[in-house]
Design brief:
Helix content: 25-40%
Distance between the termini: 113 Å
Structural class: alpha+beta
Number of domains: 4
GO molecular function: ATP binding; ATP hydrolysis activity; ATP-dependent protein folding chaperone; unfolded protein binding
Subcellular location: Cytoplasm
Strand order of the largest sheet: 1-6-5-4-7-3-2-8-9
CATH architecture of the largest domain: 2-Layer Sandwich
Largest sheet: 9 strands, mixed
Family: Belongs to the heat shock protein 90 family.
CATH superfamily of the largest domain: Histidine kinase-like ATPase, C-terminal domain
CATH class of the largest domain: Alpha Beta
Radius of gyration: 36 Å
CATH topology of the largest domain: Heat Shock Protein 90
Function: Molecular chaperone. Has ATPase activity.
Protein name: Chaperone protein HtpG
Number of helices: 20
Number of strands: 23
Strand content: 15-25%
Length: 638
Amino acid sequence: MNDRTETLEFQAEARQLLQLMVHSIYSKKDVFLRELISNASDALDKLRLTALVDKDLVVDTDDLHIAIEVDRDARTLTVRDNGIGMSRDEVVSVIGTIAKSGTAELLRQLREAKDAGASQELIGQFGVGFYAAFMVADRVELVTRRAGESGGTRWESTGAGTYTIASVDDAPQGTAVTLHLKPADAEDNLHDYTAEWTIREIVKRYSDFIAHPIRMTVERPGEGDAEATTETVTLNSMKALWARPRGEVEPTEYHEFYKHISHDWTDPLETIHMRGEGTFEYEALLFIPSHAPIDLFSPQGRRGVQLYVKRVFIMDDCDALMPNYLRFIKGVVDAHDLSLNISREILQQDRQIQAVRRRLVKKVLATVKELKTGQPERYRTFWSEFGAAVKEGLIDDIDNRDTLLEILSVASTQDPAELTDLAGYVGRMKDGQTDIYYATGENRATIENSPHMEAFRAKGYEVLLLTDPVDEVWVEQVGSYDGKTLRSVAKGQVDLDTEEERKEAEAEREQQRTEYADLLGWMGGVLGDSVKEVRLSSRLTTSPACVVGDAHDITPTLEKMYRAMGHEVPKVKRILELNPTHPLVTGLRKAHEQGDADPSLAETAELLYGMALLAEGGDLGDPSRFARILADRLTRTL
């Protein structure tokens, strides 16, 4: 070592920032190794590029690698590379100080932040992951020599406030970072970073796909009286499938990779391999699973997309890259350059992220659309497993709503076994039909047996049968398709007659309105606490009554969903419709004409309303009262 040794002091702002990094920024201490390996990989890439550009630079690029060296007795861990290295001036500017332009302003914002979480959001991209080493080390040494130079540089610090920098004569090309490790502390999540399997696990998790080999010399105990031996092993696979052209990857390789990242035991339904080029480059390898995870509808369910930057693992479950309705998609997105905060753990919400997200979503939906048209069996598998989740996108993703409506499939009265899409329904609509009719309910049987369906069945109108809870919401949000209004069979007035049929029945209807006027007014008063109106129905053929909503009322199911989520919604009164040709209704009218003082008539009106609620699968307001009145009536018949 020559006499060019200096002891320098961190600037006050830089010391504060260093303390923040060591104690607040990183949620997991293991990431220190990810940061050091990432820096080493960058140095190797820079050497290869420099050697191509600078023909006068004589360097060997045949065996670019990263070495991890452990001394268990001295409790040191060294990460070494034979990359580009740094000059003394570069060490001073890159490693010797954290301070960059705007540091004083940054620290002012940090002091105003009320918690560490807010502090993290304020930190920009400083590229100083090297200092994560101080989370696990009492002292850090760095020895480096830039390719093409004869002398090297040693940097050393405890992170307390000063650092020393000196020139050395015998440094190898590249950079070696040696950590003098703190004692292991399980309570503080400080592992023993001299343990082989701890290092293996960290490298496998964060750096498995680094393009350069990560090597470590390990000791193997001898058998019997044989002496222990050592061998050099490569810790990372370097098999980043997403970085290879699709034509060079076998389907079995994709399937094995999917099982590795998803912990699934079955092959994926579909593989999506794409590359984004231009101002922002990235590769993506996404998978559509062949079956839904058990936590698909759990608020705590895991998301599927992992984020890498230049093959370095950044985070699991990256919800910034995939909308919630596609939460079942598994895979990897590897960005060449991405705005992360200082810890690389939180994505800054910028145009890059939004652009990647838009492209990924469009590609996934386009793939599903291709399955629907070209591989209907595979599409049916997809929709049966994930359709209920995908329909959430009709509410949230307005930009892709048209595509989502194209890939939508629902049950209908057209076929008891096969689903239909909206385009198919529109193609089968009757002459003069302007609305797409649908019904919602818990299951197909309940909907098909509902009184609301009687007129549609009698007239031969196809009705979509929607049984997922999300259906209650998206049909209201979407409103129409191909110029046709989505209309519930349980809302508003229904008149399915042709103009000729309407003219023929007008006289009869007018007579019914006259005959039932008193009964309707009386029942409206008796049931006033439960219904907003009692009127004659044009949708019933065999049932005595049904309950319907006004055209713009929310449904009872949706009302219950809002209440379950803690939202206060006013109680919505509905409309009781009577079938003027049903014997029970005509009998009630005649009994009322003879005298409405009989208290049993009011009970009959209550029973009629309760029966209408039960017929549609609804809930009675007072089940015990309904049961008592019904029991009394049955007793009288014996």
